[in-house]
Design goal:
heterotrimer, A mainly alpha, B mainly alpha, C alpha/beta, A: mainly alpha, two-stranded antiparallel ribbon, extended, C: alpha/beta, 4-stranded mixed β-sheet, 21 helices, 41% helix, globular
Amino acid sequence: MRWTGRIRLLFLTPAVAWVLAFTIFPTLYTVYAAFHTVKTETVTTRAEVPRLDASGKPMLKPDGTPRTKTEVTRATVNTWDFVGLGNFGRVFTDPQVREAARVTAIFVVVSVSVEMGLGLLLAFLFNRSIPGRGVLRTIMILPIFATPVAAGYLFFTIFYEAGGPLGWTGIPWLSNPGWALVSIMIVDIWQWTPFCFLVLLAGLQGVPDDLIEAARLETKSSLRIWTGVVLPLMTPVIVIVLLLRLAEAMKVFDVVASLTVGGPGNATQSVSYLAFRTGLRFFDVGYASALALTLLAVVMAIVTLFFKRVRNVYA
Amino acid sequence: MSTPEVTAPVHEAPVDRVKPLGRRSGMADSLWSLVAIAVTILFFFPLYWAISTALRNPADTFTVAGLGIPWLDFEPTLNNFVVELSTPEGWRAMQTSLIVSLSAVALALALGLPAAYALARFRFWSNSDITIWFLSQRVLPPVATLLPFYIVFRSLDMLDSKTALILCNATFILPFVVVILRQTFLDLPVELEEAALVDGASHWGAFLRVALPLAAPAVAATAMIIFAFAWNEFLFSSSLGITETKMMPAHMAGAVDTRGVQFWFMATRALIAMIPPVLLALFAQRYIVRGLTLGAVKG
Amino acid sequence: MAISRALLLSTVLVVLGGPAVAQNTPHVTWHDDGTVTLKSDPEYGMEIKTTKEELGSLFGPGQKPFEGETVTILSLDSGPKGGISGPVYMFRPIWEELTGAKLNIALTPISELYTKTFLDLRNGTGEYDAIIVGAFFYGDLIAGKYILPVDDWKKSGEYPKWDYDVMPPALRAIYTWDNVGYGVLSDADGQILYYRRDLLTDPTHQAAFKTEYGYDMPAPPKTLQQLRDIAKYFNGKNFDSNDPEPDSGAVLHLKVREQGLYHFTTLATSFAMTPGDKLDRTHNVYWFDPVDMKPLINSPGHVKALEFLKELAAYGPPAQVSWSLGEAWDFFLRGKAVFNFSYGDVGALAQDLERSKIRGKLGSAALPASDTYWDMEQKTFVTVKEPRQVGNVTGGSWHGVVSSLGQHPEAAYSLLSLMAIKPSQKFLATIGWDGVDPGYSYQWLEPTGEAKLADYTESALKWDAQDVKEYLDAYHSNYNAPTMLPYMRITGTQEYYDALDSNLSAAMSGSKTPQQALDDTAAAWEQITDRLGRDQQLKNYQAAIGWKGE
């Protein structure tokens, strides 16, 4: 049931206006930059002027000559050269982008699937009567509050291969390109499964008792109750968590920057990390913008498709 | 038609209600319990390891055998904590983080709650499209927004200000509020608000006095999550600040110096940084799971 | 009654006398004989003596030349007691007292230093008056005209006095550009070889080595090939009595985008660079051809060097592919590897008994050269018995520069130069935690330099005598080697380095062969050069290496 009435604009507009205000310039800037290359030149003029003290009198050096100070005026000139689709062309031909896209894709698919699956399993487990459930639940959500940057560094000590708590496995956690990606995924799963668990548990507990009772009269199989009654009712929650995690995972950056720095080689370089280095280390703003926009387009396509498919359930 | 049966599931929303599905069996129950405990221990291990690392002398970082149990495997020391807690930079970073994160959360809630309600109750040209638009704000990689924000704040002479960071963080966490809480409101039976409207309340009044209190648990939970996001934000606080605006994540990254990562300090800082959000979470714990009744049943 | 009156009286005395008492313990004490004592806050324990003359004519008792100004300096973040940023904190109260100005210290994590610096400079913000930069920033700094030359201030006699002359030529080169001085003396970085003196001079091992390899085990090794043999010999043996695990020949810090790149360039110089008496198209060039800017990085010499590095890494812990400085040094300091070649911090850290088990056993030498190198003129590999020594100034050599966008350049310079005077630098080289490594004439031991052994052995770090002697000798010999690795500091250095770094890491972790990795690097470099403008890059590179034309 949906109301109409002019008052609705009062509710919605502040948030929309806020987001527009803060993102319209960045979006325009990014789009503009994606079609240009920029050269920055700063022109400074420095003049030696007499140095005055607090009362306005010229200051003197110990030998009596007047002191000077350097007055700086600066003007920064950015020259934007239109390059058409040049940056986007680079995006599609750069082998590093292809590599990063592959890394990001694997990372997103595996991490998000595990986080959702594990989160659901945990929600199921914690829905039962187990001793100390409150305490356990509190401990389970702690990783949400750990700063990703620090978590990356901390896991370095856990993945330390010449010793360390996981050294006995003999697995080259960080020195092998394939395993390094696994390590990144492990950290992400550790950090975000609790988030999924939290939201999914609440969704599970929102399923009313009478429906469960009614279903239990029909079948003894808990699996059938799950798949036939509970999961469908939880679909909206699942969709939200999935989409939120998807959007975040596509941008994975902090853990990559601290644990593996994109390595070994480029084995763990996500698209977001590549864009970061391009834009903020090489200051190749045009290319970084094109990369960011391409990522945005891909993700939005996935999200919109997905969202519309479950739209009828989601209403 | 506000009957007790309709209100009950929401008001006394399940806190610790147990709903075993299928046949009950003592064996199965204990098995599941064991699994739950095992998984929890697994997830706690990295934090335990952080504590163990923070209690060690730097030389012991990589040499401790086994599970790094204090006293058993090594001589613990509180020295790292002493050093960290007596560094004024650390306290200032904590203070800045608190101010910025709390303000950003307040701002995001003030803007996002009415919007979430509107998207749940009122008809717009396409509610789901607008929701997706909010969601899409979380998709753009940080690099795309950093430079423009830097330029904007510089021209407003707001570079080293907490205000700039509050505004940025509020913008980043707003989508969570809208997307998650819209679902919460959708889940509340609309009859209660309609009854209020019939009784002469305005839409705003129905929102404030009927819907919001019922959604309070969910709001608390979302606030917890977005606080964590703001608290852990690294890139913008590091790039837009100069001296006044150092926050905890940048302070933690400072544990990496010209000689490499000082893991003992990193662990200590990371643990200290977790205390405020965890305290706040514990405080709101009672509401968190009680509350988020999302998308179960409509009407 | 009497007690309370006494209390009242003493309170009054304290309140009145407080300021007087405070004035007697300033950071700066001017003596009648022209000397000045500078004292840091007690936690740092620094007390150095300079002269009014050395401080420059702007400074004197009661003179506050920059009163009312506020200077902001940007530095990498190691905290108030860490490397590079620590000295700034240490000198702040002294400088504030001398100048009457205020100092704001802005810290940023080391990984963000470049970004923060250029965000500020490229957008014309100018929030920082002084910036601690790495020498490899220079290409971008000079191209944008973002820093001010310091020669005039230095010559004027008004500021604390220091000189480029105390620096070895190779270091001086990276503090200047086109013979104009920009950097103020601070850190000196370079990589030398560290080895376990006790193991290499052990008669049992010497005998066994001779039997296996047919020649006397040299301590230190005179060529890289000898180093490899010794590493191979020791690898897998357990010579470390602290744990039962087998130990390694060499340990390297190969982590990508951290220090892996520097290991390669330092090592590869003697393979890839053709030694000669002058700089021409085929001699003493390492990165690009100085006439057409074509990358030299995949020359046969470079490929051979990378293959050598891979072999050497096989005699070390496999995990080192992902290790940066902290982990690799920790491994070496705990006594689990025979060799490590790295920065000066290792020497200082080895003396700290809390971190190190090898104090008194640390041998140092300049990194030996390869006995085989690629001759670019003859286009063939040449093997010599006694290769020409190659030195390097690899590393950040973090030092302060004055921003051309700041509003207080003179005040900023006064801070940087205060930290650069001889008494300051002498002190900093001895204490170890500050990240400042020795490189200047007064830091070498007599008769080469002016320092006495006691300066080191009696310092807070309490250096072991033999350790510090070899250490200082090694660095001296490294900085004064006949051939030096040219330092890459042209515009776009970050991009070039990144391409090389990731390909090196791919080779070291087995995803690419050395030839493939370096070929890919060369291709990437060509793209970067074209994109940045080949002519401009060529001019920049020629200026950077001091090319005088054919």
